[in-house]
Batch of 4 targets.
Target 1
Amino acid sequence: MPSPAPPSVSLPAPRPAAAVAAAPLPRFRVTAALLGELASSEPSPEGTRLVRDLRWSKRLLLLRAVLDADPGPRTHAHWALLEEAERRDPRAVHDVLHYPSTGVWAEETLRRLHARRGPAPDLGHLGALAVAAALRAGVTFKTTLRASHGRVVLPTLGVLRPERPGPVTLSDGSWDPEDPACLVLHQLPGGTTALDDLDPYRAAAGAPVRAARRLTPRGHKRWDTQWTGALTLLERYDTARAEEVRELLRSVVPLAGGSRSSGATLPAAAGSVLVRGQAPPALAATLVHEVQHGKLAALGDLLTFHTADRTPRYWAPWRIDPRPLEGLLHGTYAHLALAGYWQRAALYGARGAWAQHARCRAQVAAVLPVLRGEPQLTRTGRQFVEAMVAAERRMDELPPPGDQHATARRAVDRERRDWCAAHPELAASAPG
């Protein structure tokens, strides 16, 4: 299903901060029905639309904050080019500004602008965003950017490698995908998701995982095969989740070799996941898992689910280390989705899917009582958790054959006891 046309960007004027009028932003209303729908982890058009709109609204707020923090003439010129491109092709500007790496750049730039010491903010990247949008919109322009490490990054397009160091003059004829000086961003088959191994902001600075360096053509082909296989499985087992992945993922960033994680989601890079190359069945499950983290992160920008701090004190069956309440909530939500996905896969006869379903459901079932009893949940958080409980219980309608669910529960109970023995001071957070 093609994506709906984006709303008008309504770019705020780049005037001095004191003179900037507040740009109108949408008011979001999450009904109890929609909250329950989202908490179930099951995809829905309304839920997907809300997540996309929340991400876009936050991105505009971040960009306005950058403009207000640095209202100089260079910023003014870059923003004027974005406005010109927006008048010609709003979708082109929306795609560039909504690209995941733009959020990473905006948050990092704001931190640097307000820091008393440390690296200078990369304000020139706003020019790269403007040039990428102008090239996509087909406007006539001429501007100068400075290459970094011999490259000019053009988000959603790729990287330009100028012949000489120093300032680079760019125009509407500067990008030619056939030119060897242009490294084109690799597009994965079957949709609008990019495999991003080029953008320097594809992963946030200080992230717990590292993005891989640029892949070889052989590496791109391997990813094409894995991605196509994963989407084929998602379409076969759970069409709604396949559509959700296409709608909410703009980029996939390969993880560096040696990573222990199969995937990760960074809140700043909304719409992107960092993923390790893996066989299609495992990749499909990883995509389902990570998309849930992205959904809950977007909701967390609008709704307050709890008042707890970041102290790691809770047992999570999918981790060996203690987790803060936020991490426990995220992990439970993602594993609830996995339990549902594997249940559907099992009904289609996927090998080993019932065991995977039983394992994920047993993990979720072990944690939900802890979440339900958590006094630091807000009213919204309690409603969200209760809806997750109801979704987990509905899985009884299609139970796995034999005693697989009971076996999985016993295994999770053993792991809980072992964890409590290793963390006696935290055993109260993992009641049996």
Target 2
Amino acid sequence: MPTVGLTDWHRSEDFAPLMLVMSGQEERRLVRSLREVADALINAWPTDDGVEYIAAVKTCVDAILGNIQPKIARAALIRAAQEAEIPVIAVVH
């Protein structure tokens, strides 16, 4: 797969926002960019295993590297959230 180039992973224009409803100190987490996907998966996720979780981490890295579109990482995050029973709310802006 050819590399497109490192993505500006802080950029939110190409990413439809999501709200993760997590338990713990930060009950709601707004995810608006690849950076926030990575932060949620690495720093706030309730577990570090699961098929969809591992796929979401890999997909996020691939998106940051520019190998795939951010919307694919977003979809992987949603699947990982479903696996972890984390409610997801699509944010309309």
Target 3
Amino acid sequence: MRFRHPDGSVVHLSYCTNVHPAETLDGVRAQLRDHCEPVRRRLGRDRLGIGLWLARDAARALTNDPAELRALRAELDSRGLEVVTLNGFPYEGFGADEVKYRVYRPDWTEPDRLAHTTDLARLLAALLPDDVTDGTISTLPLAWRTPYATDPGAPRTARTALTTLAQRLDALAELTGKSIRVGLEPEPGCTVETTADAIAPLTDVGHERIGICVDTCHLATSFEDPGTALDALTAAGIPVVKSQLSAALHAEHPHLPEVRTALAAFAEPRFLHQTRTRTAAGLRGTDDLDEAIAGGALPDSTPWRAHFHVPLHAPPAPPLTSTLPVLRTALTRLVGGAAPLTRHLEVETYTWQALPAELRPRTRTQLADGIAAELTLARDLLVDLGLKELP
């Protein structure tokens, strides 16, 4: 979906396909047929943007066979789908029964991360629509905090890898005329947990093609104020290459037994749900929701937020809610000003099948309806900010 900003530029809205597990190229094609095109049809649009997730095996298949890449581009066109952004964070196994800490490997100290991201950049340059010259990729925020924090050589290794990536992106732009930018995506528990944590390493890299991806669920989970965060990035000259529109789980009164019971329904074995609370002494947290619920690990006199991407249009029932207000505030700062801070927006609710059983979509139709409802909410927010939806 495309929108015209009042300054004349085009802002792209997509949804991320990591909600549909697929490790192979055949799986990606099945996603387009079974999920992405049906969502487009529900929205009544001739064209729908998707934030494509290409796992390692799928990316390699496309890299190794130009004919397969051309065929994928043709299939996107035939199904009314377009790709201007990729989710390069998960490497493989995102559809496994247990993902948890595995999603953070390989990290930016390992050669496979650089190689994979380079492949994604080259693929995206080929997949961009003919009238689009700019693409973006979100990626791991350097590494999970351990063992990175105990390795004195890790920061230099990661910086070297990102500098090499920037050089390759420069060469790609010169060769293809397509500008691909990569954004570190701050996430609780990682080396770069907050937007503030991103400023120093990105300043060290010091390249316009390497910036930040602002995920509004992660921003909210860490209790960051969107205005303060975005102002600091602007002051530091760090580009927001893309933003993922998502909402976290919020518990206003975690000391109440009924709140603990409601939270327990969201503690599940597949994904990591880092949980945070803000106290007078600073931010406190656990690596997963069940650790917080068990008691003792977190103070419960202040609200808790958990890294659980809840559907944008359907916050959980009381006594819980979502951080949709944070998303609204962030979006206003991102695209509501005289000029957009980013032109790539991506709805990223990958946890539909991790929701409590009674909230999970039971059919492809229900899932497509839910994704379409999220995109409709995002579209309405953009229109309210003065953007005009394009055909």
Target 4
Amino acid sequence: MRPPLILAALALSLGLGTLAHADQKLPPDQQAKVEAMLRQEGFTKWDEIELDDGMIEVDDAIDASGKKFDLKLDPQSLAIVKRKAE
């Protein structure tokens, strides 16, 4: 195998390995804590809650006024570190 092919194969295998670790489900106890925090912060509904790139991501969280947000939470403190309006 020539060096450029080896490098291409290595890059491809590293890229596929990274995809396998994205968007992981939370353990049930942590999921319950996140849901309790969301309710406490005034959110009434949400879609998915996942761990991605070391952050907890909440998709389509709807607040009491009906506004929709994507949220990123610190996995240790569960504080909202990013709020993006949809």
